[in-house]
Every structure is written in structure tokens, then in C-alpha cells.
Amino acid sequence: MNLETLTRLTRLRHDLHQYPELSGQERETAARVAQLLQGYSADQVLTGLGGHGVAAVFDSGQAGPTVGIRCELDGLPIQELSTQPHVSKIPGKGHLCGHDGHMAMALGVAEDLARQRPTKGRVVLIFQPAEETGQGAIAFRADPQFAQIAPDYVFSLHNLPGLELGAVELCQGAANCASRGMKIALSGKTSHAAAPQDGISPARAMSELMSKLAGLGVGGALDTDFALTTVTHAQLGEPTFGVAPGQSEIWVTLRTVSDARMQTLMTEAEALAQDAASADRLRVEITYDDVFEACVNHGDAVTAIAKACASRGVKFNLTETPQKFSEDFGQFGKGAKASMFWLGAGRGHPQLHNPDYDFPDALIPIGTGIFLSAIQQVLRDN
Question: Which CATH architecture has domain 3-175+294-381?
């Protein structure tokens, strides 16, 4: 990538950074991306996939596989704390996960493909909405338009603070944990605080559940039996001294390496909730949000990324240890050979989702180059 291209993509990244939109609300970001892709003379630009998703097709006109590159459109509901001139202009919202940088790299691929079409097959660039809620990839793939662009191979990356700047970590097999948010609502009957015996309070059951849920999954080695439960929120009644509470709610995040272990963990957690409610004559309602299935890399796709890194002189490490955090990219692996890889943002770099996080611009040419080499690798070998 020459200096002029890098300067242009960096400026674009900074512009995107200043106007973050939350999951499911990425209308303006999607419109801008679609306009840019039209300017890169994509053979087809699809919009409105799964909400505000965008896809661009670069077609050789020759038989061959379809290779997808996926990035994300959404920001986070976090106030950015930064002295950078490109700091977010939207109060309470920030690109504090690096999706602005991921978009810049995918657009860098588009710019290269505009100059030189693939020699065979097709390349599809996927700009997915609502990754942060776990809903975007499911909705994108369920959209009727997806059948037109369904890839045979698909690649994605995520920048990773704590990993050496520009280095790659690549998982063989499980790449990201499954996770889901579990909400447990306990309902009894309120009473005057002077006569708690005339009500049905969920306080005891709530206290017991918080302790037992936390002990249900204690983490440990990231193997097939890994389970982690994290109580993230709890509310008992209303903030008043005059009422003995009749309602409570507990939020807990369940996390496992595999989807099968997640099903077992859910069954165990639900049984605890039912038993605690039954013991105190409470009603219980259980719901789930932010559902992420496990992300599992395909061996052939991993090989393509490894070869791409080697051809670019990028330092990489093959590992069998997945990341604890979740990614909805695993949905694309249901119909394609998929691989997610991690691109180091620097050992001392602020963590993802921190208010002082900013995507390192030095990663733009590295990530773009790996994607381009992976595309060439697949098209050459298939």
C-alpha cells in the first residue's frame, strides 16, 4: 500500500470514527459505505441486508469460488475520552471496539479490487450491522438477498490490545466463546415494611441465586468443559424504606467454549432459578439477550490466513486457545469455510470498549494486505 492510499484510508477511518452509530441504527454509516463502494466500481452493491447491512461484489466473470471479507458497522454506547482531533462528535457514543478501522481495511480491499479484479470467482465485501448485540450476523444471513452473495470462504479479523502491534494470532478450531445474557425475574408480593410477613419477598432467593450462579461456572482452562458465569446486575424492589419488596431481577452472563456446553450450563442455571423460586413460592421468568454462538474456524480457512501472513512477512502464532469474548462471525461459518484472526493493537494499548480506546492506524495496511493475500490464496488453490 503506497503512502497516498494509506493517507486516504486513514482519513476515512478518522471520519467514520467521529460519527459512530449504535447497533441497528447504522443508517448513515451504511449509506456512506455504499456510496464509497459505488465509487470503487463494484459490480453489485446490495443494501439493507439484515437491517443496515451492505455488501459489494467484485466479479471476475470466470468460474471459481466466492470469497467473503466481513467487517462491522456499529459503535458502542460509551462516551469517548480522547484528545485526538478525530474524537467522536456524538455524545455518549464511540467507535471504541475498532470497527471504524475494520471498515477502513475492507474498503482498502475494495480500492485494490477496483484497480485489479479477481482473476476468477468473486470477492464479496460484507459490512455487517449489529455485531455488538449478537443479532447482526443472524439477520444478515437470514436476509433473502444473502443467497445472491453467499461465500464459499469468508474471513474476518478483530484488533486485539495486549498482542504485539501488527502480529497475528490465529486459532485452530474454536476461536471465540459462546455467550448469552440470562435475565431471571422473581415475582412475589409487596407489603408494608412494618409487616413483611404479609408479603412474599424474593430477597432470600435472590441472595441464594447470586451465590449459586456465580459458583456454577468458575472459568479455568479454555477447554471443552470451560464454563464461566458472571453476575452483572441485580435489583431488589424499589429504592424505598417503606415497602418490603415483591420483585427482583438478576442478570448473569453465561460463557462457554462450545455450544453443547452452553446448553448444559443453561439447563443448570435454569434449574437453580426454578428451585429457588419454588422454595419461596415465587413466580420466575427467564429470558435471554445478547446471544452469541461459539465461533469455530475451519481448517482450510485457517491455512489460507497462515499462508497469507507468511507471504506478507507478518508474524503469526497458531494456537488452540480461543478468546474468551464472543463474536457473531461464527454464523458465517454455518455455510462457508470461515476464519477469524486477531491482529495485535499493541501490548500497552487501551483495552477494547474502554473510553480511551482508539484503533491504531498502523494496522490498516497490515490487515488489508492479509485479506488481499488470503483472497489470492483461495482463488489460486481452488
Answer: 3-Layer(aba) Sandwich (3.40)
